[in-house]
Amino acid sequence: MFKLKYVYPIIFIFIYFVPQVEAKKWGKCSWNTKKIVDKADRIMFAKTTAGKMVMKVKKSDYSSTIKMKFYSKGRDKMSVKIYSPSRLKGMSTLKVNNKVWYYMPRTDRIVKVNSSMMSSSWMGSHVTNDDLVKETQLQKHYTCHSSKSDKTFHVVTLKPKPSAPVVWGKIVMKIRKQDNIPVSSKYYSEKNKLERTMKFSDIREIDGRKIPAKMRLSPAGKNEYTEIYYKKIRFNVSIPGRYFTIRGLKR
Amino acid sequence: MLFRGNKLLIFKMAWRNLWRHKRRTVITLFAMAVGLAFSIPTIGLMEGMSKQMVDGITKMHLGDLQIHQKDYPEEKGIRQVLPYKLITEIDQYDGVKAVAPRIYSGGMISASKKIESRIRGVDNFEKLKIIHGEMDRKNRCLVAVDEDTAIKYKLKPGNELILSPLPVEEACEKITIGGIFKGRNLDYSLIFMLKKQVKLIFASKDEVDDPLAEEGDDIDNFKKLDDAGGEEIGNSSVEDSDSKPKDNSKLKLGPAQGKYTFVRNYSQPVGVSAVEPTREIKVSNMYKSIISGEYLSNQWSRNKPDRVETEIIIGKKLAELLNVKVGNIVGMDAVTMANYPLDRLFKIKGIFKTGLDRLDRNVVYIHIENGWDTQFIGLRNKKKKVVHELAVSLYNHGDNSKVATDIRKELDDNLIVRIWQNIEPAMASIVATSNVMTNLILAIILIIAGFGTMNTMLMSVMERIKEFGVLKSIGMKPFFVATLILIETVFLTLGAIFIGCSLGLFFQSWLIDKGIDLNALLPNGFTFQGVVIDPVWKAIFTWSGLFIPIYMLIFVSLVVALWPALRAARVKPVEAFRKHK
Amino acid sequence: MLLLKMAFRNLWRRKFRTILTMIAIGFSYGLLLFFVQFTTGSHEGMINTGIRMQAGHIIVQGKGYSEEREITENIKDPEPVLQQIKDVVPDSDISERIFLTGSLSSSSGNTILDNLVGVNPAIEKKVSEIPGKIIKGDYLSGKKGEIVIGATAAKLLKVDLGMKVQLSISDVNGNIIRAALRVRGIFRTGGLSVDRGYALISLKQAQEMTKLGSAVTQLAIFSDLQSSERLTSKLKTKLNTAELEVLHWRDAMPMLAQMLWVDKISMYVFLFIILGIVSAGILNTVLMSVMERTREFGVLKSIGMSPWRIFMLIIYEALFTAIIAIFTGMILGLSLSYYLSIHGLDPAVFVEGEQGMEAAGIPMTNLMYSKVTLFSVVWTAISVIVLSVLSALPPSIRAFRIKPVKAVRDL
For burial by CB atoms within 10 Å, which of A153, B118, B509, C186 has the most? Predict the structure, then answer.
């Protein structure tokens, strides 16, 4: 009889080596494309970041400007504290792993965001609480569909992996060739309709890194946007753990 | 010709004929009168029920009609608004009794309770008699609490309590209830926690050289991480399973037991309705549902509303969930016009109970000025006051379609007017069904009364066939005979109306005054879709409720008398004699 | 026997009147019968819709769930509970469910779900209303990664079959958990809040996402309406009520129960009135015929007929009238009722409602059917017969007392 003992190594070889060969490609694109996308995706990523930013929200009949400080550690911990305008001053948001809390200084209340509040907008912007919390690692959830390059830009089309917990049909990223800095990301629905566009601009060197200091998110078909402008960023600084605690929220 | 000259003669004959058979006439009279006497209070009762339902529905919250921005009913967008000034215009229309403006938002309401408790350190939880939950070792901030405290503060496994004041950084800042143990009738609250954590909670530390204590530029003061990675400094984050403070030389551990205060936060997502109390009480009956405390007053401190608590009324279920009473302070945030939340402290002025779970659990009412206040919801359009909804109440519920059409004519295209039947079609269908039933009852009553009349008239015709034969043979026209019978019917009907109305109105006045007590059928009192229905069922009086049955009776008795009248008219003299020898 | 024959013949001496009376009584009885059957039928329809949408005939849930509605109030280990229920109610369908709230988002919109239910599709297909309301696609197959949503939700999210939506819910520890699901089916019940905020995923998926393990929040027991009350109290004694709550559908859906109460009471009031009128009609006719025949009765008495027999004669006449009328009415009532038991009546005919009809959170858009039962025919018939005999009593007593001499002289 054919003994299983002999079959295992063969299976093993297949499992182990075939993907290795395949992995030289990323989806339908070259392995190099993956590196480019990854680099563009991680442009802001560091062990920790701390900084100040200004968020401008423009809606059809309303606009607001909110200034805040932000602190993050890895992908799991983040805290944001508003310092302007005065009526929002001290309001903080804390995200640890999968939980989100708000701190309301005027009533000295800590409110834990529950699941039904996830779809509501964060501070009036075009970003929902959910967008804020969810992990956005392109290479984890997407694979490459096609990529083109001209003199100055790479244009990469990403499609989600079948089981990825994302709702987009595809993302088209435009990345500057010279320094791998993203220029724009376009998000399409599964019906291939453009839903939102993220534009990166004002590329500057901040804290030793070249990054786009301005990001503008605009939903398709509306004259609205949310714009974030980094006034200050420091990468890889030692942020005390309490910044990501309730004590930190109340601080 | 005979009988032609004297027009009164036929009436005289008819009258006399009726009195020839006194008993029969009286019985018929009563049969008809009873029909009428039945219909009048029945209609009164049905209309009473229907009015109570319509009243209940419209006065609960809806109003007779509502005006919105046209997409608001479906989308409920916070910016889909209409000007507050519109109220004065709407007030001018005929039939409009009152208009109430409303602003809606949503948010979280929360209340906190301080729990003073003894806290005792243990090496493990094995010796405790845990009756609910389990002590999962992984979470270092897990505690066990005694049963009485758990019941008193509604604590369940999984609930979190925040320490107040917050202890030193390395200690737990909030504890999670892991288990509830059987207390031995303690007269104090008792919490068991790992010994090490208790010591940390009572630890003290000098916090002198904290460069980050200063607000301002904390960001600039962060030290750069070196590549060796000293990342895990003072990590006491909520989720971490154990803390390893690197530098606790300055930390002086405290005792393994003592007293501490814990704060339990109760919060619930709610719908916020901002109303103008003086106008609202004219449109809705919500103020009648207050079971403790009072309805919103019209006081509004214009100066610094964010410094003092403003009034709020909440539902009974919500009060239970938040563990609050009248007079307690709650904090609530609400989505503002700019879509971000802002918060404010409120003092509970009253607690209402409508019986409608959705309202009692999820809705709160505040003064409308909160809605316009830029420090709260801030619903303004270019500084002008705007609202989400105008609820209109009318003097007469029945007018609502007409008034709605009137208003619609003058209104902007981007606003819509809807009558309550459109907003609550299910309730409308119930009311409509009961109206159909009223009409059916009325029809049946009158059909029976009609058959009674026909019976009598036919009988009297049959009896008098001989007589009619005589009349005919002396030259009376068939038309005259038919008219005679019809006039007899008219007399009967008039008499029946008189008796029936007196009887009916007598019953009705009793039903209006006393009503039918349904308490035996509905021992637990009764609300229906939040509409509180009075267990004593009372009738109401309407002119149409009186005249419709009267007209119907006249119509029905004349119709049914036609057949006997024709029968009498066709009597042939010879035949009549032959038959009735 | 002779008496019966006489009574029967007497009826036909005044054909016209007898027929009229019969028509009047028959008509009322027919309406009454139809009304009872239609009300019963439409109530049962609503109860069934409610039960199939939101609960079961009996539901078992974790102690405190009805107050708090948190998933922490769950049934930790449903297996033994299921077994105990099976012992009490052997042939019933028991559905394990998890009720959640959450939010759903797509690439172009998002919505809040008030009622996200994790279900076991194999059982739900037998007991639930939703599988029959699917307008596009299919019901859950039981595999993970599927969701069934309402038509309004689909419109708000701008999604179609097979498209991806992202679901966010809280697990037992309060963590926000997300999953991408594909829309497998879209249903339309006509109820506004149901079509917007009600969605279904597989029980497995719900248990996994919430980290509930094998726990569920509700066990819905589907047996039948009649025995549900008795079984509820039986289950209450059998199950561990320190940790579980057992609710009859009436307690689980108090709004619906109250609504039906009102309707039922008004039905009885209606019945009472109709019966009152019927008896007035009978009284009138019988009294007339007695008065007419005073002389006849006088003669009968004088030739030796006993007053009792005369009394019975009249009662028999009333009885015959009633019975024949009832048969006529039955034809009318049953045919109306039968028609509606097959074709149903659209509740929308009562109002010009522009949007979803809903009462107590239950869509009222199902056709209303009447329920033809022998029981309802029999009890209404008996009450009409009893009533006719009762209302024939005063005239009969009158005939009983007629004095032969006086009667003959009078006419």
Answer: C186
C-alpha separations of C267 from C29, C263, C272 in Å = 14, 6, 9
Mean pLDDT computed over C378-402:
86
Interface A:C, Cβ pairs < 8 A = 84
Q: How far is B527 from chain A (nearest CA, A)?
A: 30
Task: Provide the β-strand partners of residue B103.
Answer: B274
Using CB atoms, which residue from C281, C292, C353 is nearest to B448?
Answer: C281
Residue of B nearest to A245 (CA): B237
Separation CA B492–CA B434 (nearest Å): 32
Q: Please, which chains are in contact with A (at least 3 CB pairs closer than 8 A)?
A: B, C
HSE-CB for B87 with a 13 A CA cutoff: 17
ipTM: 0.77
| Burial class for C189, CB neighbours closer than 10 Å (0-12, 13-18, 19+) | buried
| Residue C156: count of CB within 10 angstroms of its CB | 20
Task: Rounding to the nearest 10 degrees, give the CA dihedral for residues C281, C285, C286, C291.
Answer: 140
Instruction: Write a three-state SS string for chain C.
Output: CHHHHHHHHHHHHHHHHHHHHHHHHHHHHHHHHHHHHHHHHHHHHHHHHHHHHHCCCEEEEECCHHHHCCCCCCECCHHHHHHHHHHHCCCCEEEEEEEEEEEEEECCEEEEEEEEEEECHHHHHHHCCHHHHEEEECCCCCCCCEEEEEHHHHHHHCCCCCCEEEEEEECCCCCEEEEEEEEEEEECCCCHHHHHHEEEEEHHHHHHHHCCCCCECEEEEECCHHHHHHHHHHHHHHCCCCCEEEEEHHHHCHHHHHHHHHHHHHHHHHHHHHHHHHHHHHHHHHHHHHHHCHHHHHHHHHCCCCHHHHHHHHHHHHHHHHHHHHHHHHHHHHHHHHHHHHHCECHHHHCCCCCCCEECCEECCCCECCCCCHHHHHHHHHHHHHHHHHHHHHHHHHHHHCCHHHHHHHC
Q: What is the CA radius of gyration of chain C?
A: 30
Tell me the helix, strand and coil percentages in chain B, rounded to 5: 40, 25, 35
Cα separations in angstroms, C231 against B483, C78, C216, C246, C266: 69, 19, 21, 10, 29
C364: nearest Cα among C2, C30, C53: C53
What is the Cα–Cα distance from A163 to C146, expressed in whole angstroms?
Answer: 11
pLDDT tens-place string over residues B413-472:
889 998 888 877 767 777 777 777 777 777 777 777 777 777 777 777 777 777 788 888
Contact B62, B359 (CB under 8 A): no
Three-state DSSP at A129 gives: helix
Give the residue from B362, B330, B316, B313 showing the smallest Cα distance to C69. Answer: B362
Of C145, C165, C169, the CB nearest to A167: C165
User: How are beta strands A194-206 and B223-224 bridged, if at all?
Assistant: unpaired
* Residue B205 contacts residue B261 (beta carbons within 8 Å): no
At C308-345, the pLDDT tens digits run: 888 888 888 888 888 888 898 899 889 988 888 888 77
Hey, is B577 helix, strand or coil?
helix
